[in-house]
Structures are given as structure tokens and as C-alpha cells.
Amino acid sequence: MSEPLPPGSVQFYDGYRPGLDAGTYELSAVQSVDGVDTGAYFGPRTQTFTVDAPRFVLDAGDVGEMYPPANSSGDFGATLPSIVLNRRTLPWERHLGADSSDPAEPWLALLLLRSDELPPGPALHTGTVAQFLDASDPHERPPAIAADKLSAQVLATQMTSLSLHRRLFTAIAPAAGEARLLAHVRRTDTASRAAGQADRDGWHAVVVANRRPAPPPGSGGTGSAHLACLVSLEGHAVDLPGVGGAPADGGDGGDVRLRLAVLASWSFTSNPAGGGDIGRLLAGLAPAVSAGPEALLPRIPVPPSAPPSAALTRLRQGFAALDYRLPTGEQTFAWYRGPFTPYPAQPLPGPTDGTPHYATASEVTVYSQSDGVFDVSYAVAFEAGRLAALADRGFAVAMVNARRSAFQIVAKLQARAGSPLFANLRPVLPVPPAPTPPPGPEVSAADLLAVHSRNAFGELLAGGMGDQLTSVLTGPPAPPSPPMVVSPGTAAAAVIAGLLPPPSALYLGGGGFDEGFDAAHLSSAEPVEPAEPPAPPRPSDPDLPTGFIPGRPGWPGRDGLDPVEQLRYLLSRTDVQDLLADHARGPAADPATGWLAELALLHRIPFRHLIPDERMLPVESMRFFYLDSGWIAALIDGALSIGVEGSRDLELHQAMSRPLVEIVAAKVGAVRADHRNRPDLAVPTGGAEAAGTGASTAAGLATPPTV
After folding, report:
1. What contacts 24+ positions apart, CB below 8 Å, involve 94-98?
2. Gap between the Cα atoms of 586 and 405, Å rounded
3. Is the Cα torsion angle 79, 82, 84, 89 positive or negative in sign?
4. pLDDT band at residue 512 under the 50/70/90 scheme
5. Which of 3, 428, 496, 545 has a CA between 20 and 30 Å from the CA of residue 506?
6. How many CB atoms lie within 10 A of CB 471?
């Protein structure tokens, strides 16, 4: 595997040939044994296989970027058009012809055509591969590709083609030996790759045109439209300039039209007097800047003479009025504001139940009693995070796995805290590499998790259980006991009746007594003292939640009356929270926290959620904004809310969310710090208000107001 590149660097390669070129291959195997006639037994075996590669059509994923951009207009006269291919081997997967012996010569070329060079009518034609290879027209010549060697499926494939006069082709096509100079491979770093491109490895092939955009002769330098076509040169090797083709002055064969396969195409306008470069674009922003700083805020413009009102205040704060359907079905409107605000947003208050994170979107739906209008900004953020999480199966699985492994830790703590097997934590058999800590007045969660079952078993062995088992297993077998028959009214029946509680006092252990048990047929005429019912649960320690039976100092027992309260108390312990925090930093939760960090950086969020009204960001304009950390916190809470079912999951969700958000905040801070330290991404800032470089807090990725 290649070493990662330094940030902002790029490597260039002349080409990248595949292991096998496209084509059909035959693999033969022959086995012989010396001194034995194997001809009749081990005949040769032959296997034919095909290495496929694009030929007439490219997949949409194979084409990356194009420059100049499609349908753009600007002064592009000083640049060579180019196209980026996502398959680094694509330009070298085929040859120009069957007799081509130069493996470095690519089979693709980028042709640039002015509007006056195109034939009348549509420049590009669509049809099947069979129609493209049809040589019945004497005025058009297809490439020298044998159609009879192609499958019926390939011949029926739809493709795009271009017909050019041969003299025009020889004038604009790369000469023999030049095509290799117009294709190369680039490898770039992926550290600052945009969202949706993180799965790419940074390798790309680039094909460059051999002519610059220029106005037609006699046009006076005005702008002109251009068509860029990525064409296949396969089968046209003899038509390339310098190989034997007709001269460009119109000699023999100059009027013959060559049929070319077009794998990608786009158009643009080159206008020396038009805008399009960065200088003109920035100069176009000057009128907005001259209107004052208020014009550079992301909000819907409001007439200066508008009378003051609650709605006007909302608009100036960056809100937009959107259609809203109430849960009861009525249609109304609600205020919404995305994460980009013109002024620092008020801190988002915590949930009313005291938990650190929100569990539903309704908890962050704001209702203004004075206006009778809902503010759904944070509710939309919560739902956006939840839907993004549900749409990504990989994150959903990672989140469920992280939560399941965390609950296994908590369940093990609960079980060991109330189990008599762990009443004494001092080990009899030492457990390498670290012995179990001796018991103390308070047992930590880490100590309790470190105890192995062999410790308790060792204590039983030390108490004589081993000798007892040995004597039983090695001694003579005991004679079988005859079956005992108990008849009503006998002394045995009275003894058995004395071992059972009376019918009115049979304790079930679940909180009541069984009134329907009948042992009258076992009782005798003599009075029998009834057995005492089990003692009711001992009262809890005043410092523990109501209903607890302490199993050891500071730990709830397993026989508590309320399992949810037991779990809530367990998760409130600092040492348990530390264990969950360590778990959140471990490999089990790393995929989930990495995904959440990207979400906190607003990856996967629809643009409509960021800018709800196009008037907030007009065309050819720029806006400066603050980042609402409460919106980001609601977004993360929504993503973390998936898979929460029941009170047990809700308690664990609240406990797990805090350490997960801390890790996410750290990863987001690392990404921002990396971008601030990169010279190619540095943006000069000034003033304390515009710095926004404070450390993230764990409560909800809250940062100081960030411009």
C-alpha cells in the first residue's frame, strides 16, 4: 500500500498500465510424466477468458471533473481543457489498433471543436454499436473494429458518436506520439476530500486537449461556444497525423467523414471580455459590500421602513416562515432557522427531566405563547440527524453494536454486584497478569469487572469442596433408597406439612402470598407449627434509591424492586461513567463516532436545511454567519436516538451519549485544527469576535460563536 501523501501535495505519473490489457486470452495447461506415455491420459486443457474494459460507453462513475466546467462562460483562452477520470488505468486499457506495439500510447483523446467547425444540425448522434460500426455508407468510415467478434449484447448497446471530415480530424487530432503526452496520472492526498468522496483513494487519470479555446477567425475576438469530446482512437491509428493520413490541405480522402465514438462531452463558452475568473467574481461582490455589514448576513431582506413587529424581529434573526402541519392535522406556518445565524444564538436549554440529551424531536419543539407560533428549528435538526442515521446502514449497525457492548458491561456489573459468588474479592488463585484488588470499604466498577469466576471457584475449593467431591466420586456407591410412600394421617405427612407454609402464608417471592394452595391432605389431626414466611425485603440504605437491597457497599443488589432504578443508580456512579467513556474511545465505538463527527461538520445534511430560503443567499453573493451549536447538538441527539426501545435502552442511551459526544467533539476539533494549520486552506481572520477557535464542550458540541 502506498504511503499517505503530505496534505496539499500531488504526485504525477506518465501512465498506469493495467496488468492485462482488454481482450480475449487463452490459457493452456499440459502435463507430462517422464518415461510414461501420457498422451492418451493427460491431454492439454485450454481455458478462454476475456478481460473487459469500457469501449463504446463509460459509466457515470468513471468520469470525474471537467474543466472548463460544463455550460460555463469565461475567459478560458489561456487554459487547455481537461477531463478527470476516476479509473487511473482507463486511458491505457486498450490499444489504438491490433498492430499497435506502443503500450504507452493511450486510446483516448480529448478533441476541442469550435461552433463554426461543427457540421450543421446536431453534432452528436445516438445509436447502437451495430449502427456505429456499419460500413455501408461510402462517405463515412467507422473505426477498424470487427463487428462479428462482438456479442449481440454489445452490438445492441446505445452509444454516442461524432462524424468529422478527415481533413478536420487530422488538423485537430494529436499526432502520432503526442497522445502519450496528453494523458497522465495524478495522486492527491485525501485528507481534505469533500463529503461523498472519502471512499476514493486519490488516484485519477487526466486527459488534456491539445488546443486552447479561441474565437473563430474574423470574429473580432468575441466569445465563442466550444464542444469538448472525449473520443476513442481505437481503429483510427492510420488516420492520425504523421502516420499516413491525408494532409490537412484537402488531399485525397479529405472529404471522407470519420466516425468517432464519444465517451464523454460537454460544452462551454470562451469569452475574453466576459466574467468567470475569480477576480471578476470577487469584483462583482463589491456592490453588496458597499451596502454595509447588515447586507452580508444570512437573512431574508426586509424593507428598512417596515414597522416593528414580532414577525419582523424573527426575519432579522435569520428565521424563515415555512408551511407546517400540526400533529392534529391543521395547516399553519412555523418559524425555522438552520445552523447558520446572523447573530449568536441563545444556548439551547437542557431537557426538563434533567437528562443531558434529548430523546425525541418534540422535546426541542418551541412554542411561542405570545404569538401562537411554533419554532421547529431544533426539531428539524433532530429529525435530520435521525433520518441521516437511519439512511446509513453502516452507522446504524455500528451504533447498535456499540450500545450492545456497553450494555454488556453494565449487565455484568449488575450481576456481579449482587452475586454471592463475589462476596469476597480477595483471590485464592492469583489471576495473571494483574491480581484482583483486595476488598475494601468501597468496590470500584473496574475492580468488579476484573474479577474472574475462577476466583470464586478457588474460594470454594479452599473451603473443602474439592475434598468432598473427591470422596463422593471415589467412594463406594451408596445403595439405592427405596421409594417413600407417604400416606395421609401418618407422622411423615405431618413432618412434610410442617416443612410447607400454611395455605394462608405461602410466599411466592414476587411480592405476595398464594391463597389457593391446599395441603389439607398432608395434615394430621395433631396440630403442626406452620413455617415462617420469608422476611420481607430489607429497607434500603437512605443514600440509595428507594427499593434497593444493597449487595455490597455502594452497589445495588440483584433483588431490587425496580430494575430501572437499579440501572439508573448504577449509571450515575462516576466509575461506571468512566468505564463507558473508555468504551466510547475504544474500537467498538470508533466507526460510530467517526460518522457522528462528519455529521457534526454538516456532512449528509440537505442544503435546504442549511439555507431554508434562497433569498438568504442570492446568486453571486457571499454571506457571513455564526454557527448555532444548539442546532448541531440537536442534530447529534437525533442520530443517537435510533434503536432506543423501552426504559432500559433510554437510560443507557442517556449514559452513552455523554462520552460519545465528548469523543465526537474532540474529533471535530481535530479536523478544524488541521484545517487551520494547513497553509493551503488558511483564511486570514481578525478580531476576537471572528476567531471562533475555542475548545468544544462535551454538553453538545457547543463552541463559542463561530464565524
Report:
1. 94/21, 94/22, 94/53, 94/55, 94/232, 94/234, 95/21, 95/234, 96/233, 96/234, 96/235, 96/236, 96/237, 96/240, 97/144, 97/234, 97/235, 97/237, 97/238
2. 11
3. negative
4. very low
5. 545
6. 9
258 touches 135 (CB < 8 A): no
What is the β-pairing status of strands 23-29 and 82-85?
unpaired
- The distance of Cα 596 from the centroid of its chain, to the nearest Å, equals 8
Residue at grid coordinates 466509575 = 575
CA distance 193 to 488: 87
**Helices marked H in 230-328:** 278-283, 286-290, 310-316
Q: Could you tell me where the DSSP H helices lie in 7-158?
A: 129-132, 152-155
For residue range 354-391, list pLDDT tens digits in order. 666 778 888 888 888 888 899 999 999 999 999 999 99
Nearest-CA neighbor of 124 among 231, 31, 200? Answer: 231
Task: Give the largest CA-CA distance in the chain.
Answer: 134
pTM higher than the cut 0.85? no
CA distance to 331, 348, 430, 605, per residue, from 612 (Å): 19, 20, 64, 12
Per the model's pLDDT, the better-predicted residue between 423 and 63 turns out to be 63
* % pLDDT > 90, the chain: 25
Rounded-to-integer distance, Cα 132 and Cα 257, Å = 13
Residue range 435-481, pLDDT digits in tens: 344 444 455 556 555 555 445 555 555 666 666 666 666 666 666 55
CA distances from 575 to 424, 538, 571 (A): 20, 26, 9
Q: Express each pLDDT in 102-135 by its tens digit.
A: 777 899 999 999 988 888 888 899 999 999 999 9
- Half-sphere exposure at residue 368, Cβ-oriented, CA atoms within 13 angstroms: 15
Assign 612 a pLDDT band (cuts: 50, 70, 90): very high
pLDDT of residue 507: 31
Question: Structural domain boundaries of the chain?
Answer: 60-270, 293-398+582-681, 424-463, 490-539
The phi and psi torsions of 513 (rounded to 5 degrees) equal: -125, 150
In the sheet with 203-208, reading across from the earlier edge strand, the strands are: 10-13, 183-188, 203-208, 82-85, 63-67
- Looking at residue 82, its pLDDT comes to 96
Specify whether the CB–CB gap between 227 and 123 falls below 8 A. yes
Closest CA to 553 of 650, 673, 630, 442: 442
662 versus 456: the higher-pLDDT residue is 662
Compute the half-sphere exposure of residue 661: CA atoms within 13 Å on the CB side of its CA: 27
The whole-number pLDDT of residue 416 equals 67
Interatomic CA distance for residues 265 and 81, integer angstroms:
12
Q: How far is CA 79 from CA 26, 125, 201, 686, in A?
A: 46, 28, 27, 35
Q: Nearest 5°: CA angle at 683, between 678 and 686?
A: 130
* Amino acid letter, 640: L
pLDDT tens digits for range 148-182: 989 999 999 999 999 999 999 999 999 888 889 99
Cα separation, 502 vs 529, in Å, equals 9
With both helix axes pointing from N to C terminus, report the angle between 393-418 and 646-677 in degrees, rounded to the nearest 10: 120
Residue 563 CA to residue 547 CA, distance in Å, equals 9
Helix (H) or strand (E) holding 583: helix 574-584
| pLDDT of 16 higher than 80 | yes
